[in-house]
Amino acid sequence: MKGLSNMKIAFSAAIAAVALLTAPAMGAVIPGLSNTGADADANGIDDAWTLNGGSAFIGSPINPAWQANDGTSRWLTPTANGNADLDPTAPGFYSYTLNFSLAGFDPASASLSGRFAVDNTVDSITLNGVSLGSGGACCSFASGGTFSANSGFVAGTNTLTFTVRNFAQATGNPTGLRVEFLQSAVNAVPEPAAWALMIGGFAAVGAASRRRRSVATTFA
C-alpha cells in the first residue's frame, strides 16, 4: 500500500509539472510592440522606433490631409516639424525600424498583425530581413494598409522595418508613417525548473512501478 501511495504522489507531481508546462501555451502578447508615437521623450522623439538608424520624431504639426494623431498612435516624421517640405528634386527613402525581443518565448508560436498609414508609399515591410510585402498602400493618409506575420521570428532580438518612399515634389511635400498593432501572440518557453519537475515526477512513477513489479515477483 505504501508503494502504491508513493506512486500516486509521484504521478500527481508529474501531472502538476505538465500543467506548469502547458499553462504558458495559452499565449501572451508579444512584448515591445509599440505603436508609433506611443512612447515619446521630452523632445518629441519616439523611444521605440528609429528612422534610418537615428531619431524618429513625433511630428507636430502634421499635414492637415493626414489622419489626426490620437491616444493610440501618432505620425512619425523625419523632422520635428511634421509638415516640413522634403525631397524637392528626387524621391526620399526612409526606413522606420522597431526592435523587440522574444527572449524567453517560443518564436515558432509568434504572430502579429497591424495597420499603417503613410505619405507617400511603403516600398517594403520586413521582419528580420524577410519581406512581409509592401502593404499595398500608396498615398493613404487616412486609412492605409495592413500587414501580418506568422513566421520568421527569432528567439532573441527581432527587427521590423517599414521602408517609406516620398515622391519628389518642390513644395508641399511632407512624409511620415503611422503604425498600429492590432493583434499579437506568443507562447512562453517553460522554465527549466518545470521541465526538471516533470522529468523527476515521471522518473519517480517509473521507479515506483518497477518496485511494485519486483515485490510482486518476490511473493509470487
Order of strands in the sheet with most strands: 3-2-1-4-9-6-7
**Beta-strand fraction estimate:** 35-45%
Number of helices: 2
Query: In which range does the helix fraction lie?
Result: 10-25%
Run of helices and strands: HEEEEEEEEEEH
Low-confidence region ranges: 7-26, 193-208, 212-219
Largest sheet data: 7 strands, antiparallel
Q: How large is the radius of gyration?
A: 27 Å
Q: How would you describe the shape?
A: globular
Architecture overview:
Strand 6 (121-127) and strand 7 (130-133) form a beta hairpin. The chain is built from 2 helices and 10 strands; from the N terminus they run αββββββββββα. It is α+β, with helices and mostly antiparallel strands. Strands 3-2-1-4-9-6-7 form a 7-stranded antiparallel sheet, with no helix packed on it. Helix 1 runs antiparallel to helix 2 (192-218). The radius of gyration is 27 Å and the shape is globular. The model is unreliable at 7-26, 193-208 and 212-219 (pLDDT under 50).
